[in-house]
Amino acid sequence: MSSFDFDLFVIGGGSGGVRAARMAAQRGARVALAETLGQDGLGGTCVNVGCIPKKLYSYAAHYADGFHESAGYGWEGTAPVLNWATLKANRAREISRLNGVYGNLLRGAGVTVLNGFARIDGEHAITVATLNTDGSPGHQNFSAKHILIATGGTPHVPHFVGREHVITSNEVFDLEPFPQRLLVVGGGYIACEFASIFNGLGSTVTQLYRGEQVLRGFDDEIRHFVAAEMLKSGVDLRLNAGVVDIRKTAEGLRVELEDGGVVTADAVLYATGRVPNVAGLGLDAVGVAQGAQGEVIVNAHYQTNVPSIYAVGDVTNRVQLTPVALGEAMVVVDRLFGPAAGKAPRDMSYEFIPTAVFTHPNIGTVGYSETQAREQFGQVTIFRSEFKALKHTLSGSSERTLMKLVVDAASDRVVGLHMVGAEAGEIVQGFAVAMKAGATKAVFDSTIGIHPTAAEEFVTMREPVSR
Questions:
Q1: How many helices (H) and strands (E) does the chain have?
Q2: With pLDDT > 90 as the criterion, what percentage of the chain qualifies?
Q3: Cα torsion at 424, 429, 434, 440 (round to 10°)?
Q4: In a 10 Å sphere around its CB, with 0-12 CB exposed, 13-18 middle and 19+ buried, how is residue 427 labelled?
Q5: What is the C-alpha separation between 37 and 48, in angstroms, rounded?
Q6: pLDDT, tens digit, 9 for 90 and up, residues 403-462
């Protein structure tokens, strides 16, 4: 009989933590999971204030364009008006349902779920701060053979005059009232997504970014193309621009810019990056190594320098994507408790991870950008196609679609696939499987397209635009 209370103690009820806890319990391990939001907030950033509500709001934002474009298809009548309160309430109800699903999955697997803030007190020791039945603070002490840190990340807002007046992506879903004028500060995917979403919902949106172009790290051509499409749709995107200070006035929030200009807004959303959520975890006391931003440093097996302590997901500041956290969690579970019957132990590769950005239009991408590919492989061949989607031949919209393939010239392998256009994520997911399997351009060329679709363009591009 083990001398520990649990075989695995998971800190954090997000995607990675829930997956690890549930799967470890299904392997027969005694598992506890601590989450400050308890059963009402399970699912972490993705479920509560990230991927899921963001995608729902993105769907909502597309309806305005849909109503307008329907006229070209013969639909007549007055377009509906957004009821912001209804959208918020319906979103909240769906998120609550998902929270319940996560709780049921954990309970069904036999995981002990603790509602409280967990702190690591030793290599095998955890203290969970809780509330007593009378509302007074209390605590519970536990021991565990293994500890998994899966606390995710949190938005970072730099210090400046007026910082107290801004919101982050945590608060944007429940803004009240609806912001008729929204200023978005930042140039990453979160900033670009919310600029697109609120522009579609009816806000007058200004977006500021200090750099020369948004979406640093993505393929340069994709960056420039989507920025142009966002501008065309009505987002006032200003590059090489920054904030000096923000002051509250009778007319709204007065935002002074570095170039001397002024923007007045009803709300200012800062999406200037995320940092690992490690405050109060006790990592210093127990000697867990951390990086410059506080990220937990782990080896290839997600083990820290303290052998009994592991970490997965955004808290390690590697690739901040929900499916990545899920994959990392399974590597840990297989390593600690063995793989599922008849299965080989999981491994995690960070090459050819597909991702989508829910700007309007969407971005879907997998593999290397053109610049990265030239650095990695030397000579590459580029195939590119830009066109107006069939839908928009009647809709009246000027939106265009861009598709791009990056091919390693030596092996003919497709090493980069990028798209800006409707449902880009849905299209790119399937191609990611082919690329993971090592598909060559010859394989793409021999594949029959589905006509008429935008996706068929990826298998009909024959003439390279550069080598």
A1: 12, 21
A2: 95
A3: 20
A4: buried
A5: 11
A6: 999 999 999 999 999 999 999 999 999 999 999 999 999 999 999 999 999 999 999 999
With residue 107 as reference, give the H or E element that holds it: helix 84-109
Distance between alpha carbon 420 and the CA centroid of its chain, in Å? 17
- Three-class secondary structure of residue 401 per DSSP: strand
Cβ-contact 157, 168 below 8 angstroms: yes
User: Which residues pair with residue 126 across a beta bridge?
Assistant: 120, 142
Burial, 129: exposed, middle or buried (Cβ in 10 Å; 0-12, 13-18, 19+)? middle
Domain architecture of the chain: domains with CATH: 6-154+276-337 (3.50.50.60), 157-272 (3.50.50.60), 355-459 (3.30.390.30)
Angle CA 39–41–42, to nearest 5: 70
Would you place residue 397 in the very low, low, confident or very high pLDDT band (cuts 50, 70, 90)?
very high
Using the predicted structure, report yes or no on whether residue 360 has a pLDDT greater than 90.
Answer: yes
1 pLDDT higher than 70: no
Of the residues 156, 159, 224, 451, only one is catalytic, namely: 451
Detail the DSSP E strand segments found in 242-370. Answer: 243-249, 252-257, 262-265, 267-270, 274-276, 309-311, 355-357, 363-367
Query: What pLDDT is attached to residue 172?
Result: 98
Q: Which two tokens stand for residue 145?
A: 């053979």
pLDDT at 222: 98
Structure tokens at 113: 């779920």
Q: Which amino acid is at 321?
A: L
The C-alpha atoms of residue 378 and residue 395 are separated, in whole angstroms, by 42
End-to-end CA distance of the chain: 64
224 as an active site residue: the answer is no
pLDDT band at 2; cut points 50, 70, 90: confident
Check: CB of residue 324 under 8 Å from CB of residue 353: yes
100 Cβ contact partners less than 8 Å away, ≥ 6 residues apart: 39
CB 144 within 8 A of CB 7: yes
Give the DSSP per-residue string, 363-376. Answer: EEEEE--HHHHHHH
CB within 8 Å of 349: residues ≥ 6 apart: none
Considering only CA atoms, which of 112, 82, 286 is closest in space to residue 201? Answer: 82
More confident residue, 7 or 2: 7
| Rounded Cα gap, residues 203 and 82, in angstroms | 11
304: number of Cβ within 10 Å: 22
